[in-house]
């Protein structure tokens, strides 16, 4: 039993340097996730600002409508379909890097969810905080930056951490555009060795470990922020 | 420069209508002179808080004008943020910034808006903290403070901007009874030092003792006003008589 497992392990990961599929795939997965997260945060932040500014002051009406359309479309369609549309329709005739397409697709997708997370965070800050800032003479933007955002960010950190974990796992559909990410890497091994157990359990473990590390990091950050005001 | 006795805030025919129906303010005109302590009383829903909040435009009036130091701040051309710096406001629920220390709460606006150096702002803040006897709380966060302490910090946070007038919106209503005294003490001190104050409150003792003028509001209108003596000893408006008989 142990001997077979050892043999299988050798066959799936060591023989023919197959572990490189896993390692390279992990690199791609992390690269896509990292840049998609950045796009998601920036985009989500900007949209949240537009949306809550409209909610609070009634300004930015047209931008708010655009944001709402974006949110509806992105949240109303599957991420795989969005990925396929961006790759085969929008960039169908151009020779663009698959990694770049994946980054764009997952970034655009994540932005919609992050926007609503940020917006709920901004709205969760008591309006008295806003009034206190304004009555001291801060303008709308300054009040947002110095008073509302720091509190909103702390309120949404757990939800934000969760969104990134979801994003990391979602990139596993990158194989649909033949991008060799972690999942695709494991799948390639499976197609070579005709063994499903080892490569699939292997990549599952890699995802699990990454998610656990990230959860730990978010918890640490959360604890540090909490310490700062009680 | 406006000197004692001159008009600091002038309110002209102010209306505030919610949902086209409820008249929170129904044609209010009033003048606040420099050095005055004006106390506004009235039943809940009388529009007294709306009136106070209109003075620095936290509440945007539907119609009418507010002049501060002779400038029409209700005009669209006016940069209200510049004028708000000179109008301190104290809220019922304190609204200290929970993510900042007491010292940071006090120095934030002077540093960012008045462009004071950090050292200067902190020095000034420590002096104000000494004034209220809370200098040892400088580096703690608001959540560690009692309600009375929070409100005193909120008051000196406004004072740090060196305002021309202080607006108080029911500053003691959210406090436990044993903490009301310390806040009123501080407000009395301010009044004696000549600060112009507009105070919405239910503390009739404070009104009698400190106010230069008491205003009674009801149904969005100013129904009666006068010195504390004539106001409390010889009320004329029937609604005021009824109001006073209930609370005194």
From TrEMBL, chain A:
Pfam families: BPD_transp_1. Residues 26-218 form the ABC transmembrane type-1 domain. The keyword 4Fe-4S does not apply. Coiled coil: none annotated. One of its GO terms (cellular component) is ATP-binding cassette (ABC) transporter complex. Its main location: membrane. One of its GO terms (biological process) is amino acid transport. NCBIfam families: HEQRo_perm_3TM. Keywords: Amino-acid transport, Cell membrane, Membrane, Transmembrane, Transmembrane helix, Transport. This is Amino acid ABC transporter membrane protein (PAAT family). Belongs to the binding-protein-dependent transport system permease family. HisMQ subfamily. PANTHER family: GLUTAMINE TRANSPORT SYSTEM PERMEASE PROTEIN GLNP, MEMBRANE COMPONENT OF AMINO ACID ABC TRANSPORTER. GO terms for molecular function: transmembrane transporter activity. The chain crosses the membrane at residues 32-50, 62-90, 96-115, 136-153, 196-218. It is found in: Cell membrane. It is a multi-pass membrane protein. InterPro entries: AA_ABC_transptr_permease_3TM, ArtM/GltK/GlnP/TcyL/YhdX-like, MetI-like, MetI-like_sf.
Automatic annotation (TrEMBL), chain B:
Pfam families: ABC_tran (PF00005). It is a peripheral membrane protein. GO terms for molecular function: ABC-type amino acid transporter activity; ATP binding; ATP hydrolysis activity. It comes from the Bacteria. It is found in: Cell membrane. The keyword Cell membrane applies. Residues 9-244 form the ABC transporter domain. PROSITE patterns: ABC_TRANSPORTER_1, ABC_TRANSPORTER_2. GO terms for cellular component: plasma membrane. Keywords: Amino-acid transport, ATP-binding, Cell membrane, Membrane, Nucleotide-binding, Transport. The keyword ATP-binding applies. InterPro entries: AAA+_ATPase, ABC_ATPase_HisP-typ, ABC_transporter-like_ATP-bd, ABC_transporter-like_CS, MetN_ABC_transporter-like, P-loop_NTPase. Its main location: membrane. Belongs to the ABC transporter superfamily. This is Amino acid ABC transporter ATP-binding protein (PAAT family). It comes from Muricomes intestini. The lineage of its organism: Bacteria, Bacillati, Bacillota, Clostridia, Lachnospirales.
